[in-house]
Design a protein that fits this description.
Blueprint: H1 4-15, E1 24-25, H2 34-42, H3 52-74, E2 78-80, E3 84-88, E4 93-97, E5 99-103, E6 106-110, H4 117-122, H5 126-131, H6 135-148
Parallel strand pairs: 1-4
Antiparallel strand pairs: 2-5, 3-4, 5-6
Helix pairs in contact: 1-3
Length: about 150
Amino acid sequence: MTSLVEKVMEYKAKKAELWPVRSNRASELGHPCVRYHVFNRTRWEERTLPTAELQMVFDLGNALEPVVLDDLRKAGFQINEQQRAFEWKEYQITGSIDAVIVAEDKTYPLEVKTCSPYVFNAIKSAEDMTKAATSTCVSTRLSLPSICL
């Protein structure tokens, strides 16, 4: 008999998918390798599907995003424009902003990311994100200026 864990892992593996890439994704602009970007645009279908384990990480992040936004609202912050799409045609850049947060009468784009407690505790500033051990932190930190435009 197939175990519970095996069934869940099978489901997660089947759920993983690739999408065509027809523009430069704002969330990936911080990736340091130009070849990565070229292959993303020209040979996206050759990318490796996310593993079941990585799909579980993605799903957890997606499930936690509304919880984080709700916590921010309950803490007194105004959250606007959730999942707002944007496009910078001149540079063929597209993406979406998780939300816009209003803090001290200023608005800021908000990107919600999850990470391990070890990574979280190591981040004390935006600069720390460029030194982080994970490529997601570095890529997110370096991609934020394009999202702010």
